[in-house]
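Report of the visiting student (M.T.), summer placement. My assignment was to run the structure pipeline on a short list of targets and document each run. The first record concerns Reverse transcriptase domain-containing protein.
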Amino acid sequence: MIGVSPEPYLDLILNPFNKREWDYLSLGPSYIRLNQSAIRPVKQQKVQIKSQLKDIYNKVENYLVKKQRMPKTARILKQYSDHLDDYFNQSYFAPICYKDQIQAQEQAYTAKSIRNKIQKHKLILRVTDKSNNFYIGSKTEYEKKTVNYFSDTNAFIELRENPFNEIMIEVTNLLKTSAKDKIICQWQERDMMPNLTTSELSHLYFNPKTHKDGIPVRPIENTIHSATKNISTFLDQRIRPIFNDKCSITIIIDGDQLIKQLRIYEMNGLLKSTTLFCTFDIHNLYTILPQDEALDTLIEFPSTYGYTRVIGIALDALRKLSSVVLKENVFVYGRKIYRQILGGAMGSALTLTLANIFMWKWQQKLVEEQQQSGEFYGRYIDDVFMTWNRSEEELRQLLNGANEWHPNIKLDYQIGKSLPFLNVLVTNNDGILTTSVYHKPAAEPYVVPYTSDHPRHVFGNIIQSALNQAMRYSSTFENFQKEQRYIRLKLLYNGYPSSIIEKEYRMFFLGHISTTSFLSLLQNESQFHLMRDHIMNLSTIDAIHQIDNEIQHSNINQQQQESISTVEERQKKYQDKIIVHYTHEKRFSPTKRDLHKKYTDIFQNTPAMNVRLIVGSRNRRSAQHDLIRKRPPKRLLQNRPSKSKPFNILS
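After the run finished, the structure tokens were exported:
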């Protein structure tokens, strides 16, 4: 049960923050300050108005001109633009209540004072790994942890010069030459070509693992603007569906799927009172992959299943493209530039797929052992769950032997009759499988605070998702009731009103139970299992993504023009929809409704009314992005002679 309200992890002897600052930090990394733009200068607000107006109007205009054949010079489009302009100006410059004005100013001042104090006292502020609260520690001590990581992995070398231009030339030349020689198609070249204006080196940062002894760090590489990012994404979207299809027996998507697989294991009479569970994880999987060996395995995998090409690309060309992603992974950390020589970027889409395929080969002996004895084996990236019906000593011998199968792969394992895996606590209760939601001992009871400047539907979604997980992961009514209490207390700690909690609880039960059958709140074990069986038959988000990948893989097998068909399907799906976004703040709560009304008022009695306008929202900057500075200077990320000139491929 929860004992205290959520707070940051303080890795210092003394707390340098006053109560106001500490309370703000306790709101967590997802918190969004109230009405952020309301206290900005008029000039900045006008820039934001212009940006939102341009974004929304361009999407509406492009759709109506291309799909509805409306002339670009049509007066009605000008009327729509003028109405939008007037609306946003009124919304931004309308006075807000005194209380909200003071609160917005106080929160901005508090955030600024926290940033100043972090700099003054030479502190480090980061988001904890897997706990979703802030970590505060000494910058000097934190740097020692990162130095230890570099030395322990030996996966990086420091560079004396910035190779950004050379990387850009190499990537673009590879793609152009491959297209010219018809190794890849022109549309594939376009999809993989880096953006010559926005491309830059990746940058590295570390998040602390406060749930582990000694608080080690996890490296995260921001590759969103890297020269190879588009190649990485393109290849991952094509290779991963094949992997998911061919390795579906050993893949665990989420805790929900694990429970379903173990229920089958139990129903087949394989779960005995003496059955042991085992979990193990691989040390630093992303940074221990030998690059050439990983590339060889990447080609070996499709070859094993009869592939000579993937979306029309020969396997040797696939290796070349993947090689540039791995071997041109150069990033900035601090004021220095590094190249990764072992493994791949933890943050690159292709690295995950390469790691999965590498593990596919490594685990083959273990999978064969489990399948021959009828035992369960499932893997979620670098975490494995197994069942075992022989002696514990034999299992330890097997795992200790597995530690010798590859010089780079070392695993830590746990053996027992009750083990956590993917937020599920799996227990062998004298031959009966029981499951419940698992909460790490070090995890803070944190969710997005109710006072955060998020759209109101977000808070309802948080409650619904928590109850859905509780229902799926709890195998007994008693476990579900316990988790319900945990969720309720956690929500109360984070400022959720009791009335909102009760409303969302009732909505959850009414959404899955016929009101003519029994009361909206569960009363006994039989009602619980009836509702749980219904929910377990619904797909989770992760499972839906898996199905989408399998559909995509099916399209690949059916025709070579997979990309064209996928684009056509996507266009058909959205052909009668215009999707626009505004930036949410508390003072803009009516904006979604008002944008619908503006569209209807202007375009009524025109073919434009046959189109469905979908209005979504973007969020303002969260506390994580407001308080944490991880991005290195631009001059290090882009080795260019002038800030005003874009990269010249011929330079």
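The chain has a mean pLDDT of 89. DSSP finds 23 helices and 19 strands in the chain. I thank the supervising group for their guidance throughout the placement.
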